[in-house]
From TrEMBL:
Keywords: Germination, Lipoprotein, Membrane, Palmitate, Signal. This is Uncharacterized protein. GO terms for cellular component: membrane. It is a lipid-anchor. Residues 20-196 form the Spore germination protein N-terminal domain. It is found in: Membrane. Residues 216-374 form the Spore germination GerAC-like C-terminal domain.
Length: 379
């Protein structure tokens, strides 16, 4: 009997315990990280959200109660020093493994600052490269202080969940930090990182203006040069060349500026064909297929005319954005990347002679095929 009792008790004594496990309310979870560079010092911002409200919507708060957002700051001569400085003021164990976005201020976009930031993040055991990456010209603490609409979970903002907005209104594609890190040292890569702006004039809560985030442009990284900013309006043609585009609005206007028709465009498909002349001049032709739906029509216009005008406007937007990039010596449409992947020998020969291989004439023919849907019928 005693022997059987010992055999039953012995395995229990060998079980590991959980004496050091921490409750959720005993930990600080960082949800977003901001990187600034001021007076030769790194300034890091962290956004901390109330973990008990994440995942909740109507049950999360009463509407009069705020989302409980905390913002911390650390400084140091290096990225790692600034990171460690954050621990001097945190009140309990702080975890960085749940960061969903990283925001770089314009002043922190230098080659040295970006490389050091990525290097430290890759070495820090608690950090990951899965967050979204943004740039901004706004104060980072103001970006982090933006509240979600309605009594939603505090992560229900553009900062943490950009896909919902992008699926309905595709203009500048969101980017993951891991994708950025993979491309930053590629010899032909052009990287487009969305810029977060603030606007406090469009939304109100209880008759009080509420600041909301928007994507107002992007910084373009190209061949280790200083990143340059292009506004959303100047990048309007990017949506037709980006395979990530899901749904984007196209408006056709009368000569007096009034809207003639509104046509959401879905899932554009683009094929780029690169060629190099005997004299070594590259040229890029585009074949684009789009599906357009008529949601608003204010004039008596035939489908044939609509299709012609849609083609014309798409071509114009592509040309405008391309030339805007050329003026800044930027490859907005990743054309050099196509040549690098498909004709490496020519790419190597051309780039030896020219630091920037694109000219206004490098963009060749743009062919656009439009499938027009009207109340479920395809023309």
């Amino acid at each position: 009997m005693n022997r059987r009792l010992i055999l039953l008790i012995a395995p229990i004594l060998l079980l590991t315990g959980c004496w050091d496990i921490k409750q959720l309310n005993q930990l600080t979870y960082v949800s977003a990280l901001g990187v600034d560079y001021v007076n030769n010092e790194y300034v890091l911002y962290v956004q901390v959200l109330d973990i008990s409200k994440i995942g909740k919507s109507e049950q999360g708060s009463s509407g009069t109660e705020g989302p409980n957002i905390w913002i911390g700051k650390g400084k140091g001569p290096t990225f790692a020093n600034a990171w460690n400085d954050l621990y001097n003021s945190t009140q309990q164990r702080t975890l960085f493994g749940q960061i969903s976005s990283i925001v770089f201020k314009e002043s922190a976009l230098g080659k040295k600052q970006v490389e050091e930031s990525l290097d430290t993040l890759e070495r820090f055991v608690d950090a990951r490269l899965t967050p979204w990456i943004y740039t901004t010209k706004e104060p980072i603490d103001k970006i982090f202080a933006v509240e979600p609409m309605l009594p939603n979970s505090p992560i229900m903002t553009l900062l943490h969940l950009p896909n919902g907005n992008y699926e309905q209104h595709s203009l500048i594609s969101p980017m993951k930090l891991v994708e950025f890190a993979a491309l930053i040292n590629e010899p032909s890569a052009s990287i487009i990182v969305p810029t977060l702006g603030l606007d406090d004039k469009l939304w109100k809560k209880d008759d009080k203006n509420m600041p909301m985030m928007n994507v107002n442009g992007a910084f373009l990284f190209y061949k280790a040069k200083k990143p340059q900013w292009i506004s959303k309006n100047d990048l309007i043609g990017l949506r037709w060349v980006d395979q990530n585009t899901e749904r984007t609005p196209l408006s056709l206007n009368e000569k007096n500026g009034k809207i003639k028709a509104l046509l959401p465009i879905e899932n554009p498909d683009v094929k780029i064909h690169s060629m190099v002349s005997k004299s070594g001049v590259p040229k890029f032709n585009m074949d684009i297929k789009v599906q357009a739906t008529i949601t608003q029509l204010n004039s008596q216009v035939s489908n044939k005319v609509l299709i012609r005008e849609v083609k014309k406007k798409i071509k114009k937007e592509i040309s405008t954005t391309y030339l805007e990039g050329i003026n800044k010596k930027l490859d907005v449409f990743h054309l050099e990347e196509d040549l690098y992947r498909n004709n490496y020998k020519s790419w190597k020969s051309i780039t030896k002679k020219n630091k920037f291989l694109l000219t206004p004439k490098s963009l060749g023919t743009i062919k656009v095929k439009v499938t027009l849907t009207d109340r479920g019928r395809k023309e």
